From TrEMBL:
Feature: compositional bias, Low complexity: 607-616
Compartments (UniProt record): Membrane
Region (Disordered): 593-636
InterPro entries tied to this protein: Kinase-like_dom_sf (IPR011009), LRR_Rcpt-Like_S/T_Kinase (IPR051824), Malectin_dom (IPR021720), Prot_kinase_dom (IPR000719), Ser/Thr_kinase_AS (IPR008271)
SUPFAM superfamilies: Protein kinase-like (PK-like)
Keywords: ATP-binding, Glycoprotein, Kinase, Membrane, Nucleotide-binding, Phosphoprotein, Receptor, Repeat, Serine/threonine-protein kinase, Signal, Transferase, Transmembrane, Transmembrane helix
Domain Protein kinase: 290-564
GO CC annotations on file: plasma membrane
Membrane-spanning ranges: 235-257
EC number per UniProt: 2.7.11.1
Protein name: non-specific serine/threonine protein kinase
Length: 636
């Protein structure tokens, strides 16, 4: 009977999640009641970490943060001010919640329909711009997303309000369709970081409220406070007696599955609070059941399909081919960290899907697909010189951001033309960054080989497994030569001397024919920029990682802000290529001797003169031992 009663209570709990869930929050501060009687709930009881979530007030709303105020001695993510902001409820603006990068508030269990979201801001950290002091140079700039849609771009609190310590309210109409609301404030590295104090940057919000525009249909009252208590009691007793006498076992079964379903719903809500999640059914429908006709390509981590969501967004869905060794929570934390890293030259990650052992990632769709297809694929594009230079420079900036500016920093591990995608304006966007962190190292090496990325691997990584950001620099150098020449890093259809792009580039350079490397389909190009690209590529592909420049310096050299250092020495892995391997001659000699001996046995002429021979003199070729060839071909 206790279990049956619990079943009835569980029904009430599930219903209660979708009851009247309007809420207001005093961001970063204690509970406050406004002059109009609205209760703004407390939001100072938790200090989110670098990537964390806190569900508040009986799971009615939640707050999460991604980013770390590492430049502060004691990052609290909460700000206070003693200055009075002139409103009916100034207490709301004496506190605020801050984030280093990405701040989200969630409404959970909302009844579907139209809502009004009110966000309240006041700049309480920066000085007024009219003071003409260095403190007045501080700028706080961030974007406002609601339900995943950009509603305010480059929002500046003090600029919008007309000064500091001035309240500003922003109202947004929102349609809730899945009982779930997301308010996302994202900085993306905009604004200043050290004015007036180190770490005073990122989104800042003082208060928010979410109110429905319709009369909600679920009462939200507990069962014991509703009317007709006696009638309800009689019904419950009748249900319990009938259930115990007639169908005790089916009730236990129903209870088990409902409890499991409720747990699944709760887990899904918690995952969505950390990052955007998609159901497997939703992605299967978007891709027409992963129809081969929608397949965009296949990389080391799995196939990629084009899809269209129900809201009309075009997406690219990657099925991860290698099972992650991490649990759901760890996997989602990693994905939320990656999705928070945004840059003009990085592919945007919308979210993920976890369905039992399935792991899928959802990216933005880019119209012009990958760089390798644009340069030398079956559907190659005509890229003029300006477009090629822009693609190269954008790729360099994206890698510089990953290596030196993002938090956390990333080593891509697999920089190649097929991992650089192009949007409608041919702006390059690096894809698959951060994915190697989701897998064990030994599996990463396997998938890199399977992806066919020979020719891009740095020598120290191919031979010793030594991985630093300089391995990405090497891959970029190869990509630079591919963009310049319009041909892949190796091409078996060409003569031996031209087969490997790096070797051919050095041959032309040493014979004062450097500009012959430029793609002949490019009718007009800037010779100064061409020499600059080749010089940068030679620096990036040096054998020693110490000799390769960091990507920030690569950007400066490409733009002409810094001179390109002269490269006087050919890399050792290319000079070692030019020695004769006698293995083929030795094998040919043994084969010839064995063949003639067999012929003698067949003729059975024991009196013939003993056979003597010299080297059959096969045509010598410039070859290399297995170790050096592994370096050139990236572990082939």
């Amino acid at each position: 009977m206790e279990k049956v009663a619990l079943l009835l209570h569980l029904d009430y709990e599930v219903t209660q999640r979708f009851s009247d869930a309007n809420f207001s929050v005093n961001c970063g501060g204690p509970q406050v009641t406004s002059a109009a009687g609205t209760v703004f709930e407390a939001d100072y009881l938790t200090t989110p970490g670098v990537a964390s979530l806190k569900v508040m007030n009986a799971e009615k709303w939640a707050v999460s943060n991604v980013g770390l105020l590492s430049t502060r001695a004691n990052p609290t993510y909460l700000e206070t001010s003693t200055k009075v902001v002139g409103t009916n409820t100034p207490e709301l603006f004496q506190t605020a919640r801050l984030s280093a990068g990405s701040l989200r508030y969630y409404g959970l269990g909302l009844e579907n329909g139209s809502y009004t979201v009110t966000l309240q801001f006041a700049e309480i950290l920066f000085a007024n711009r009219s003071t003409q002091t260095w403190e007045s140079l501080g700028r706080r700039v961030f974007d406002i997303y609601i339900q995943g849609h950009l509603r305010e771009k480059d929002f500046d609190i003090s600029k919008e309000a007309g000064g500091v310590n001035i309240a500003i309210l922003k109202n947004f109409s929102v349609n809730v369709t899945q009982n779930y609301l997301e308010i996302h404030l994202f900085s993306g590295g905009k604004g200043t970081c050290c004015i007036p104090n180190i770490g005073d940057y990122g989104p800042l919000i003082s208060a928010l409220s979410v109110v429905s525009d319709f009369e909600q249909t679920v009462s939200g009252l507990p069962p014991e406070t509703s009317t007709s208590d006696n009638s309800k009691t009689g019904i419950i007793v009748g249900v319990i007696v009938a259930a115990v006498v007639v169908c005790l076992m089916p009730i236990f079964v129903i209870f088990y599955f409902r409890r499991k379903s409720y747990a699944d719903v709760k887990e899904l809500l918690e995952l969505r609070a950390k990052t955007n999640t998609f159901s497997y059914a939703e992605l299967r429908s978007a891709t027409n059941d992963f129809n081969p006709a929608n397949k965009l390509g296949e990389g080391g981590f799995g196939p990629v399909y084009k899809g269209v969501l129900s809201d009309g967004r075009v997406i690219a869905v990657k099925q991860l081919a290698v099972a992650s060794h991490q649990g759901k929570s760890q996997f989602v934390t990693e994905i939320s960290t990656i999705s928070a890293i945004q840059h003009r030259n990085l592919v945007k990650l919308y979210g993920c899907c976890i369905d039992r052992n399935k792991r899928l990632l959802v990216y933005e769709y880019l119209e012009n697909k990958s760089l390798d297809q644009a340069l030398f694929g079956a559907t190659r594009l005509h890229l003029d010189w300006g477009t090629r230079f822009s693609i190269l420079l954008g790729t360099a900036r994206g890698l510089a951001y990953l290596h030196e500016e993002s938090r956390p920093r990333f080593v891509h591990r697999d920089v190649k033309a097929s991992n650089i995608l192009l949007d409608a304006e041919h702006c390059p966007k690096i894809s698959d960054f951060g994915l190697a962190k989701l897998y064990e190292d030994k599996k990463t090496h396997i998938t890199t080989r399977v992806a066919g990325t020979f020719g891009y691997l740095a020598p120290e990584y191919a031979m010793r497994g030594l991985l630093t950001e300089k391995a990405d620099v090497f891959g970029f150098g190869v990509v630079a030569l591919e963009i310049l020449s319009g041909r892949p890093n190796s091409d078996d259809s060409l003569d031996d001397e031209q087969r490997y792009l790096l070797e051919w580039s050095w041959y032309l350079h040493e014979n004062n024919r450097t500009l012959e490397l430029v793609d002949p389909t490019v009718t007009a190009f800037d010779e100064t920029e061409a020499f600059r690209i080749i010089g940068v590529a030679f620096l990036c592909t040096q054998a020693s990682p110490i000799l390769r420049p960091p990507m920030s310096r690569v950007v400066a050299m490409l733009t002409g802000d810094v001179e390109v250092s002269a490269v006087t020495s050919k890399p050792s892995y290319l000079t070692d290529w030019n020695f004769k391997d006698i293995t083929s001659s030795f094998m040919d000699y043994n084969d010839s001797e064995s063949k003639l001996a067999t012929e003698d046995d067949n003729e059975k002429d024991s009196s013939s003169t003993p056979f003597t021979t010299t080297n059959p003199n096969p045509s010598p070729i410039n070859d290399t031992g297995p170790i050096v060839r592994d370096i050139i071909e990236g572990g082939k």
